[in-house]
Amino acid sequence: RTPTIEAGSLRIDPATRMVTLDGAVVETSAQEYALLLAFLQHPGNVLSRKQLEDTIYSLDQGAASNVIEVYVSRLRRKLGRDTIRTVRGHGYRWGSAGAGRGDGVDP
Fold it and tell me: What pTM did the predictor assign?
């Protein structure tokens, strides 16, 4: 059995694809789940838009140019605004690592 992935009060059970936040089930699309898993498998790392597109490309053939922004926005709505940070010119990072250090991270 694949171990549960945890980040604070967020839990993902890869075996069942269940996502919970503070014990409540969070419904995610296949694309949102794939992005969330990518972020949690690389905590603190900046993932480029290209890396994230590659994560969901097979799930979303013919994706629009803003598909990553759309899914990131949906995840922020479901999990909290500060869960995914924009690193200008580079991509996105899970959580607030580096916030407040003048490294280009949006609040």
Answer: 0.80
